[in-house]
Amino acid sequence: MAKPQVVVAPVLMSKLSVNAPEFYPSSYSSNYTESYEDGCEDYPTLSEYVQDFLNHLSEQPGSFETEIEQFAETLNGWVTTDDALQELVDLIYQQATSIPNFSSMGARLCNYLSHHLTISPESGNFRQLLLQRCRTEYEIKDQAAKGDKVTRKRFHAFVLFLGELYLNLEIKGTNGQVTRADILQVSLRELLNALFSNPMDDNLICAVKLLKLTGVLPGFDVEEKCGLESLHLSGDLCKRLRTPGKPLT
């Protein structure tokens, strides 16, 4: 089976649902789905199996709903050690932060796996290891925001992925209620501070993209922290940025 070719494209804020049938390309074939239903016998390593599936989702996001259950079941038979779980987390994180249009899909995938992977070692379950991986990037935010162009680009990809995790990652309480991972709010506010404290064009663009994605986060004072009026943003955008929790459409 030929490896799907992933093309790096600019981040696009689409209002379309990835569940829509229109996301299936005209060349879509059920053979790919059938190959996953047959299991992972054709893949010599976990890395190759997971990477192929991630590339497949990048090209055919509409296949998520029909193939994710089988993918998770296969992983439960394969990911049985701490090292394998860490490798899985690293592979998904890398895809979500290196392919810009995969950040939303990556966050949905992370949410599903956090609820359906059975392995839960002492070193941490899938969600805990994922957040630890994000923490590693978060801790160097100030250096990254003022780094060179390549460093900033990598940092921006992380920022937007964390924003998607904030929107998609669900945590089940002891009574079975599902809540958003609100703990990420604090991290996102600090990331915005880092971006606006280093007002290079690409940092400001990333900050506005995050605000468009999440809405203004509670406790984040846009006017005090960012001085928006001096950033040459439109008056309408400034007005909407002052409304906490309101998405920027």
UniProtKB/TrEMBL annotation:
Quick check: keyword Cytoplasm in the entry?
Answer: yes
Record domain MIF4G: where: 47-247
- Where in the cell? Cytoplasm
A biological process term (GO) from this entry: regulation of translational initiation
Q: Which InterPro entries match?
A: ARM-type_fold (IPR016024), MIF4G-like_typ-3 (IPR003890), mRNA_TranslReg/HistoneTransl (IPR051367), PAM2_motif (IPR009818)
| Keyword annotations | Cytoplasm, Translation regulation
**GO CC terms for this protein?**
cytoplasm
- The membrane-spanning stretches of this chain are none
* GO MF terms, alphabetically ordered: RNA binding; translation activator activity
Q: How does it assemble?
A: Interacts with the RRM1-RRM2 and C-terminus regions of PABPC1 in a 1:1 stoichiometry. Interacts with EIF4A.
Reported function? Acts as a coactivator in the regulation of translation initiation of poly(A)-containing mRNAs. Its stimulatory activity on translation is mediated via its action on PABPC1. Competes with PAIP2 for binding to PABPC1. Its association with EIF4A and PABPC1 may potentiate contacts between mRNA termini. May also be involved in translationally coupled mRNA turnover. Implicated with other RNA-binding proteins in the cytoplasmic deadenylation/translational and decay interplay of the FOS mRNA mediated by the major coding-region determinant of instability (mCRD) domain.
Q: What is this protein called?
A: Polyadenylate-binding protein-interacting protein 1
